[in-house]
Amino acid sequence: MKINGTPYRSVWINEKDGWSVHIFDQTRLPFSLDILQLTSAQDVAHAIRTMQVRGAPLIGAVAAYGLALALRHESSDTAMEEQAVMLAATRPTAINLRWAIDRMLAHLRPLPADKRVAAAYAEAGRICDEDAAQNEAIGRHGLSLIRDIAKTKPAGSQINLLTHCNAGWIATVDWGTALAPIYMAHDEGLNVHVWVDETRPRNQGAALTAWELGSHGVPHTVIADNAGGHLMQHGQVDMVIVGTDRVTRTGDVANKIGTYLKALAAQDNAVPFWVALPSTTIDWTVANGVTEIPIEERSGSEITHISGRDERGTLSKVQITPDGSKAANPAFDVTPARLVTGLITERGCCAATEDGLKSLFPEQ
């Protein structure tokens, strides 16, 4: 994707400065486009924990490079296993993180220590390339759904899509999941408009999705999280499309907190609710998302304080709750499969059921 006409991926390597890893600091967007240089596994772990880098597919890709950075310092079996455990523990809900670390270890364990660094960088690079290709394919399959909606409306009329959190290219290596079909529809000339949930408490929709869509020229409107149901009641949403951090083999979907409520509103108003994901986000070991998927509990300060830019252009953080009020901050919720119209993967679209998923992934 492009920023001001310059193509970027969300993570890249610079061989000239010691094979360091470069990412955008997502905590500074949309007001400042800062590039971070990560030179150690500890740097990577910090970036993941603090959400300088976020988005399930991107976390996995950056963690893979984090293991490569760790091996530059010490490539023994013991050190590799210890650093892998440290990286995998940074965030619990997104399955891509664990998947990427497991894939790296499976590739590296059989190799002698002196061959591991080069092999780690190569394997992390393959993970990135595969993610970009998968997301482009998701975009093509999701585009067909938007085309189908366009056929039901008067020629040239607006197609209203609603998304929650950020599932764009800044959350993946490239293209994004839920936003990939939207970019392709816009580029094809379809009259798409996106309702962007602000996505409290970290405002990934207002800050990141709106920034992405604006940079690409896609018409959009930021709304309060609680406005989606109202819009659906009044026929102003043609389809909801979101990403996900983990999908069970039965089709339950873990995504940013508030997704479940959008799915309930969509069902009540007969609005299609689609979830876009690469197959690396499917957890084939889990059947019941509500009881089995661990939900990350983040700091209450994300609820009690909010960051923004004041009238002088200064970035600042302000408190919005009374002193002494406690805050609970579950970062994700689980949408049961019965509320999901279907899943969009790199292999096509399917029902949010075990049979539906196995029809696309029979090897599982």
Automatic annotation (TrEMBL):
InterPro entries noted in UniProt: IF-2B-related (IPR000649), IF-M1Pi (IPR005251), IF_2B-like_C (IPR042529), Initiation_fac_2B_a/b/d (IPR011559), M1Pi_N (IPR027363), NagB/RpiA_transferase-like (IPR037171)
Pathway the protein contributes to: Amino-acid biosynthesis; L-methionine biosynthesis via salvage pathway; L-methionine from S-methyl-5-thio-alpha-D-ribose 1-phosphate: step 1/6
Active-site residues, as the UniProt record annotates them: 245
Alphabetical keyword list: Amino-acid biosynthesis, Isomerase, Methionine biosynthesis
Catalysed reactions, semicolon-separated: 5-(methylsulfanyl)-alpha-D-ribose 1-phosphate = 5-(methylsulfanyl)-D-ribulose 1-phosphate; 5-deoxy-alpha-D-ribose 1-phosphate = 5-deoxy-D-ribulose 1-phosphate
Protein role: Catalyzes the interconversion of methylthioribose-1-phosphate (MTR-1-P) into methylthioribulose-1-phosphate (MTRu-1-P). Also catalyzes the interconversion of 5-deoxyribose 1-phosphate and 5-deoxyribulose 1-phosphate. Part of a bifunctional DHAP-shunt salvage pathway for SAM by-products.
Name of protein: Methylthioribose-1-phosphate isomerase
Gene field: mtnA
